[in-house]
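Key result, reporting period 2: structure in, sequence out.
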């Protein structure tokens, strides 16, 4: 179990169906790393209930998310895949870290402010202290890197502040984690309102990973381009946010550079470009959808994956939790 490899960790809330932003911002950067890293990836169900969930939907999405992780190439033999609520150390360390996170810090979190606006009738304590639980998720595994999209950078920064504060009092308990992201995928924007990030709350501007090809094609055809007069495919995020977002997506999916994309569509306008991006995304997602459906049908296999994952994760998490409990002065049982 113990290796000298570096460690990576990340998670996604099963509060909605996975979308292209989750894939390009996070999951894509998780795969293919198990030779060099010990990798921990989880379904953040404890986080999901900070917003009211339908229990049956939450269960369905948690399992679908696990199947999709595997379909995206995360081999459960080489990556520890688990459900957050199965590893009780998350909630326990989350409590401890609440006591090392300042009210002012939590009040400044953009996600808290956004979600409070969207859920004005349910601004609960969990929504507020969410970042301390996220810090616990991270620090239990002492990771070197946390691969997430740009919208989570503020939370990783807060986690780093907690490390500094805690280690400042008790010595080197936690390793300082680094935020990790790629340029093209870090911020995938909404197809219909490119000023906003792609999110499940605007479904027509959001491409879901398991969506039918014809729906994906439609969404890209209707994607908002810009109201400039030149109508050419040129990367200019400030001036042309819609086209630049589509270029980012195309670059992230095909591996092409912005120069190559500009040359490919030189003189062709948006009419050729938008369906081409749609096609590239459809081809990327086709095997992921088919494989997810196949894996989802095998409930016994999925159960064995999450049980094994929870066991492996708990082993590592418990070591960190014990150290923390000892440092803060709790009597061992
Ligand atoms: P969540 O569930 O909102 O999103 C999961 C991952 O997807 C990324 N993402 C995006 N990336 C690019 N463009 C977008 N439009 C886009 N939308 C979402 C997010 O940045 C994230 O990487 N708090 C986390 C979940 C979490 C976690 C953790 C992550 C809980 N504990 C510990 C890392 C480590 C969240 O709400 O992500």
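The corresponding designed sequence is given below.
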């Amino acid at each position: 179990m113990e290796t000298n490899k570096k460690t990576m960790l990340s998670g996604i809330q099963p509060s909605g169906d996975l979308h292209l932003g989750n894939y390009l911002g996070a999951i894509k950067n998780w795969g293919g790393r198990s030779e060099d890293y010990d990798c921990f990836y989880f379904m953040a169900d404890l986080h999901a209930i900070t917003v009211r969930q339908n229990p049956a939907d939450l269960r369905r999405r948690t399992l679908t998310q696990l199947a999709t992780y595997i379909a995206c190439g995360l081999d459960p033999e080489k990556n520890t895949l688990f459900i957050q609520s199965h590893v009780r150390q998350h909630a326990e360390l989350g409590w401890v870290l609440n006591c090392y996170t300042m009210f002012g810090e939590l009040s400044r979190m953009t996600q808290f402010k956004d979600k409070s606006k969207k859920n004005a009738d349910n601004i609960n304590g969990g929504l507020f202290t969410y970042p301390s639980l996220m810090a616990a998720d991270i620090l239990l595994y002492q990771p070197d890197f946390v691969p997430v999209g740009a919208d989570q950078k503020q939370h990783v920064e807060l986690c780093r502040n907690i490390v500094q504060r805690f280690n400042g009092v008790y010595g080197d308990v936690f390793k300082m984690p680094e935020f990790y992201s790629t340029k093209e995928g870090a911020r995938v924007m909404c197809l219909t309102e490119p000023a906003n990030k792609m999110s499940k709350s605007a479904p027509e501007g959001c491409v879901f990973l398991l969506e039918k090809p014809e729906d994906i094609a439609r969404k890209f055809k209707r994607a908002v381009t810009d109201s400039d007069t030149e109508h050419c495919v040129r990367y200019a995020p400030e001036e042309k946010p819609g086209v630049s977002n589509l270029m980012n997506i195309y670059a992230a999916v095909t591996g092409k550079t912005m120069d190559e994309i500009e040359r490919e569509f030189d003189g062709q306008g948006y009419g050729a470009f938008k369906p081409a991006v749609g096609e590239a995304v459809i081809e990327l997602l086709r095997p992921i959808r088919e494989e997810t459906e196949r894996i989802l049908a095998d409930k016994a296999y999925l159960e064995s994956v999450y049980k094994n994952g929870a066991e492996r994760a708990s082993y590592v998490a418990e070591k960190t939790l014990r150290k923390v409990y000892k440092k803060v002065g709790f009597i061992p049982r």
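Strands lie at 6-12, 37-43, 79-83, 145-147, 178-180. The mean pLDDT is 95. This case is discussed further under Risks and Mitigation.
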